[in-house]
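[recover] target loaded
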């Protein structure tokens, strides 16, 4: 049975599955200083590389599971502000929630708004039982947001092929 792929809404945002039409935006976002510092350099150094990243990393999971990375579009003006997604990440048990924003859209409440919606959908629509989040030890804004979302600090984790120890937060649907 094919997976149904949907777009979602919050009060101020449209959460649209990221597609190759978002390549210029993804290129810009992935090359912001905070993205590189806190999430990592993904080697997306051109719009063509962003297109390939979307096709190879985001679209397959979306087609397979029905969720992946979402481009967040402001309802007020149609501008792309950031991304939020649910990721089947190697090295983690359960699904990982993550977010990133262009600098001009930080501290607007959009990260909480989008993440809270995806957290709700994870359990009500996608059948996810355990939600994870990982963040660097020095990303205090991310840590505060994860705690506000109800995720609890569980310890540290190292992902495959990554030297940095990350903080692991979790939320179980059964709790």
């Amino acid at each position: 049975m094919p997976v149904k792929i949907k777009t979602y809404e919050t009060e101020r945002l449209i959460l649209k599955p990221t597609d190759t039409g978002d390549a210029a935006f993804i290129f810009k976002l992935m090359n912001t200083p905070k993205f590189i510092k806190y999430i990592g350099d993904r080697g997306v150094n051109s719009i063509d590389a962003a297109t390939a990243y979307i096709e190879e990393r985001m679209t397959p999971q979306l087609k397979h599971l029905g969720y992946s990375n979402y481009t967040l579009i402001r309802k007020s003006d149609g501008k792309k502000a950031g991304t939020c997604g649910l990721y089947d990440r190697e090295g983690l048990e359960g699904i990982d929630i993550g977010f990133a924003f262009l600098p001009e859209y930080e501290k607007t409440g959009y990260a909480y708004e989008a993440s809270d919606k995806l957290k709700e959908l994870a359990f009500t629509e996608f059948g996810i039982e355990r939600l994870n989040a990982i963040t660097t030890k020095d990303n205090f804004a991310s840590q505060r947001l994860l705690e506000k979302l109800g995720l609890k600090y569980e310890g540290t984790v190292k992902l495959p092929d990554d030297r940095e120890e990350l903080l692991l937060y979790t939320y179980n649907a059964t709790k």
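[recover] notes: The first strand starts at residue 8 and ends at 9.
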